[in-house]
Amino acid sequence: xxxxxxxxxxxxxxxxxxxxxxxxxxxxxxxxxxxxxxxxxxxxxxxxxxxxxxxxxxxxxxxxxxxxxxxxxxxxxxxxxxxxxxxxxxxxxxxxxxxxxxxxxxxxxxxxxxxxxxxxxxxxxxxxxxxxxxxxxxxxxxxxxxxxxxxxxxxxxxxxxxxxxxxxxxxxxxxxxxxxxxxxxxxxxxxxxxxxxxxxxxxxxxxxxxxxxxxxxxxxxxxxxxxxxxxxxxxxxxxxxxxxxxxxx
Length: 249
Fold this sequence. Notes:
alpha+beta, Aminopeptidase, 2 domains, eight-stranded mixed sheet, 7 helices
């Protein structure tokens, strides 16, 4: 898990402000206060003092942000208890799954669905809007979201209804760092679920990063149902990621 933690430590600061605080790398989104875009990442084996945790808390609080961390438990096994001891609370435990080249199982798109790279801003807007709705958010797409989606280039894929041209889902592969890439944002519009589209999107992106030199792809399924889908592509459980934050009183 140290390799995956190193990957996140290298990629999370992209397009964010950062601050080194004790054994933490604190990241701050430049144009959003969303908790999922503002969080700290610990060094491997981090055992912070109460004063270092307090300094981290202050760094987020003075920016009007929720003090928050995301990390793989095996990379810093003593950290969760230290944070809880300073009143941080567990938001959730997220399973981590990995897929090596030899584990990969191809999953073609089902009949009536085409997978392709977005080729216009209209495609990007449709892809991001579909993802937002699938994740329980507004269908509106901000300029920042559009720019972020555009930055994936051909590491983004959308699923399209062949007959109507409607975008039914999509996902991204993040950049390759140290032979690793994260597969993220896998989403399928509710009316089109349970047809094998999510598995096909995941397989497409996983094969893409394997072909481009990443022996390991990883992802963090949101629930057991989607984890079953990922298993069909060859992903296997590899550990867990925890999200902790200091609730506002």
